[in-house]
C-alpha cells in the first residue's frame, strides 16, 4: 500500500511539474523577448542620436555651416519619432500593418540625400562611405520615400557597426532587369552561414565576437519587412576580401 501511495505521489508530482513547466515557459520566453526588445530599442535609437550629436559638434566648430547640419539634425529627430512609432507597432506584433505612401521616386536624388546624411556621422566612426551610381540617370520607382530611406539607414548603420576604423562602406545602386538594386557593402569580418539564415529574425543576436557588442536584429527585421511591403527583398552575400553586402531589390 505504501509503495502504491508513493507511486501515486510521484505521479502527481510529475504531472504537476509538467503543468507548471508548460505554464511558466511562455512567461519566461515572454520576459526574455521583452528584455531583448528593450535592448533592441536602445540600439535603434542610438543611430539618430549619433547623427544629432555629431551634427551639433560640427556646428559648434563651424557656426557658419549651421544651416547645412541643422537640416540633418531635424531629419534625425523626425526619424526618431518614426522609430518610436515602429517600435510600438512591433511591440504590439502589428508591424505588417504599416501603411506606405507610394509615389514616383527619383532614386538618384534619394540616394544622394542618404549619402549626404550618412557622411555626417562617419567622422566619429573614422570610416569612409562612397556612393557609386551609374553614368546614366537611374529610373524612377514606385515607393515610399521615407520607408526606403529607413531601409538604407538601418543597413548603413549596421555596416558602420561592423566596419573597422579606416575601412570603407560602399553605397551602390543600379538597375537589373525589372528591379532597382541598392547595395550596402562593408569590409568587416563578415557573417557565418548560420548568421545569414537568422539575421533578419526579430531579436536575433549574432556573434558578439564580431564587435564585442550585444546587437539585436530588430533593425534588420524592420528593413526586411519594409522591403517586402514594397514587393521587394533583401539578400546577403559575402564581400570579396571580407565583409558583408546587403542587397536591396525593389521592383521598378
Describe this structure in words.
The chain has 252 residues and is α+β, with helices and mostly antiparallel strands. It folds into 2 domains: 95 residues, Orthogonal Bundle (Helix Hairpins); 148 residues, 2-Layer Sandwich (Heat Shock Protein 90). 55% of the residues lie in helices and 16% in strands. It contains 7 helices and 7 strands. The strands form 2 sheets. A 5-stranded mixed β-sheet has the order 2-4-5-7-6. Strands 1-3 form a two-stranded antiparallel ribbon. α5 packs antiparallel against α7. The protein is globular.
**Overall shape:** globular
Per CATH, what is the topology of the largest domain? Heat Shock Protein 90
Strand order of the biggest β-sheet: 2-4-5-7-6
Largest sheet: 5 strands, mixed
Low-pLDDT parts are: 208-216
Mean pLDDT: 79
**What is the count of structural domains?**
2
CATH architecture of the largest domain: 2-Layer Sandwich
Q: Rg to the nearest angstrom?
A: 23 Å
Order of helices and strands: HHEHHEEHEEHHEE
Distance between the ends: 79 Å
The CATH class of the largest domain turns out to be: Alpha Beta
Helix content, binned percent: 55-70%
- Number of helices, counting only DSSP H or I runs of 4 residues or more: 7
